[in-house]
Each structure stands twice: as C-alpha cells, then as structure tokens.
Amino acid sequence: MEFTNNGALQGIKVVDAARVLAGPFAGQILGDHGADVIKVESAEGDECRGFGPPFINGSSAYFNAVNRNKRSVVIDLATESGRESLFAMLDDADVLLENFKLSTLQSWNIPDAAWFTQRFPRLIHCRITGFGDHGPYGGLPGYDAAVQAMAGLLSINGDVGADPVRIGVPVVDLTTGMNAAMGVLLALQARNRTGRGQLVDVSLYDSALSVAHPFLTNYLHSGKVPAPTGNKHANIVPYNVYRTATVPLFVAVANDRLFAKLCIALGTPQLPQDPRFASNRSRVENRDALEVELSRAFARVDGESFGQQLLAQGVPAAPILDIEAVARSGHAQFREMVVTRPDYVGPGIPIKLSDTPASIRKPPPAIGEMSLDAVQGPFGSSG
Q: What predicted TM-score, i.e. pTM, was given to this entire model?
C-alpha cells in the first residue's frame, strides 16, 4: 500500500535512539508529518514491544501505537563499532532523539549532552530525561507514575477523602513526547535562521509540573495546599458529574451566560437570580448549596437526550462513554482518529494540515528490519 509523503517535515532525517514511550512518541509525531525516522534498537528491541497483551505480529499494541512511520536498525551501542555506526548516521541527520542515562554517555567517553552538537553543529539533539542531568533530582531515572507522584499530580487526583489515584493515561510520558516534538520544531526553525543546531532539554518532571494547572498556580498565589476534588473543578462551578434518571452527565459551565442557559433547560431559572449563585465566584463560595439544587434537578431528566439538548444550545455537557463506545463512534471515524487498515490498526493523527497533510506511510517496524546500509536512503514515496 503506497502513500505519497507530502508532510511538512519531508526531507528531515531523524535518528530515534529513545526507548519506551516519551521519546518514541515524539519520533512518531515527526514521522507522521513526513520525517524519515530511523529507530535504533538493541538486538533485544525496545522493551515496550513486550508491554502486552494484546500482541500483533510479535509486538505489543502499546509499542505499535507510538512507532509507526519508522524504520528499525539494530546497533549494539555498547561496542565502539556500534557507536561509530550511530555517529555515521548523525553526520547527515537533522535530529537525534535519545533518553540515555548521563552515566551511559560518559561510559562512551561522551562527557555531557553538549558533546553532540559540538561534534555535529547542525544537529538538533533532543535529550529526554526523568529530571534533567543536574540539580537535586538530577540523573534520577524517570517513570511516569513516579513522576506523577513527585510532581504533585497524584495528590490532587481522585475523590475527596480517598487515597490518591494515578491519572489513568501516562500523561507525563505523553506530554513529554509532545514537548519534545515541539522543541525539535522550534530548534529546526531557529536553525533556518542561524544555521546551527542546538540541545533540546526535555524532562518528565518539567512536563509534569507544566500541566499541574490550576493547582500549582493556585497554591503559589494563595498558599493553600490543594486537595483532591474528584470530578469537581477547583475554580469553576458547576463543573461535575451529575446523575440523571438514566446515564450520568459531565457538565462544565465556565461562565454566567452558560449557567443561565443550563438552569433554564433544567427548569430552575430562579437559581441565577439567587445572590449565592449569580457569579462564578459566588458559586464557588457556595458550591455545596448549589450542588444540592442541581443534583435534585438533574435527577429528573433523561441524561442522553438532555446532554444532546445542552450541547445543541452551546452548554458543555457529555455522557460518560467507555473506550469501546469512543472507538465505534461516528465522529471518531469521521475525524480519522481510529485507523483500521490491513497493515495497521491504531490511533489516528490529531494535527491536520491543509497543504502538507500528515500520513501513515508505514506500519511499526520489526526489530532490525533494515540493514545499516539500507537506512542511509530515505523512505521515498512508499513504506
């Protein structure tokens, strides 16, 4: 199956020497948008090939979801000849993605991360670490759940009074991958102006703190330590799951105009006239009293039809769907966010460009499917 590569990054060569999730996800984003991505693996392969079930053609669905549009080459970087092969690939590469320990680099006689752009001046070197190479946590290994804990995300997730809960998706790894891809694009743009590459330093810890919103900023300005709020919002009311006569509804009303619309639809038009509920600030202050009134009103409506009615009126509301319902939904299919092809099944591409569209040109690679000689050439127009 052939697909023309008209992506925005056509002609950009990426050496993806990262493992597991954050780095490979960044590499896939670049590959989706046209870059030639060469995945460097050991003979055992990226360990997330084994993160299953389910498995497809020997690799996990987990691996396949973040490694399409790549070629794989096996290099033993523990040997000097293997490292020389990597460096030969970097001679004409635009981007290096890696997440090696600093001690590993030093064992290869690479003193620090600055070495790569000193040897390869046009190279964009994206280094992904757990906490950065220096500082009080510098050099510590990074794992999504552990970083969620150390960055405060677990402390504000879950129900009031219950134990902290890990955010279900690996949000730290995925955010780090997106930050890495964005950092690479920023550095490529800067290279267009300066002719020089640079180091892109991205850590799981920094990425986690960057999405601790609004809890971190609330603390910095108030001095009050945030606690879990369940499905409620710390700064917006009403913003919660409400039980109806049928299915539960999530309602997120961020301004007074929408609150008035909600109350009219619920048959409680008097609530916005109550001084306790007239503004978001007052609704936050009188949250418990308002929740009693709203819960009573929501209990009388059909959740599915009422949710559709609210959305049609511009009020943010939605039934809570499971993953099966999402995967089968007509809109996910229409937006091409679920891909089902003979050679690839997985999530779609979220960034749609009108003139230089992304594409899935190649399914995830088998371990070492290409020889070192073969990866010197570009993808071309087909996978």
A: 0.89
